[in-house]
């Protein structure tokens, strides 16, 4: 799996382009804004975008998904249907995030353990609620990459002070769904620089209670 990180909006949200080296089929993940910038990069690499994937329903991650789906004539997959609260309340999100109003209509809700295919790439979808009720992450086993959205960051975790967030649920999601992927798994987060599970087990203050020997 090949990937490019495109930071967008004042939130420096990481939009990802991932693609299959063999087929050049590609997917956009969390195009939260600056769609012209994203289109210019797609043109430069001459990739065939076939899907847009969404980790969760916050505006800084979905902001330009709908307009790109229309321009590129491709479907939007995700998040899990439990994020319908956020998607229905775009106006509330405008007030919270202070981002431009957008339209968002996804085509397909995602389920836990659902596989997504991009050329020869297989992404496994895991429902990881906590930051939002319907948050999902995407894991590529062959490359050992996890696209984590806003569940976990380098030295931190996603916010749980927003409506329908839940700290205990987020920690449970990380403990049961993310940490077992193994220490060598590279984490590609929704904001900030990449990290890996081993580093986070040792350094992330929110994970200090987890027994490290259970996972190595």
What this model shows, in words?
The chain has 216 residues and is of the alpha+beta class. The chain has a single domain, classed as 4-Layer Sandwich (Metallo-beta-lactamase, Chain A). 25% of the residues lie in helices and 27% in strands. It is built from seven helices and 13 strands. The strands form three sheets. Strands 6-7-8-9-12-13 form a six-stranded mixed sheet. The protein is globular and about 45 Å long. It starts with a strand and ends in a 13-residue tail after the last helix. The relative contact order is 0.14. The mean pLDDT is 93.
Strand content: 25-35%
CATH fold description? Metallo-beta-lactamase, Chain A
- Biggest β-sheet: count, sense, barrel? 6 strands, mixed
Structure annotation, total helices: 7
Please state the CA-atom Rg, rounded to the nearest Å.
Answer: 16 Å
Task: Strand order, main sheet: write it out.
Answer: 6-7-8-9-12-13
> What's the CATH class, please?
Alpha Beta
Overall morphology: globular
- The total tally of domains equals 1
H/E topology pattern: EEEHEHHEHHEEEEEEHEEH
- Low-confidence region ranges: none
Helix content: 25-40%
Mean pLDDT: 93
Structural class: alpha+beta
End-to-end distance: 24 Å
CATH superfamily: Ribonuclease Z/Hydroxyacylglutathione hydrolase-like
Q: Indicate the CATH architecture.
A: 4-Layer Sandwich
Work out the number of β strands. Answer: 13
* Oligomerization: single chain
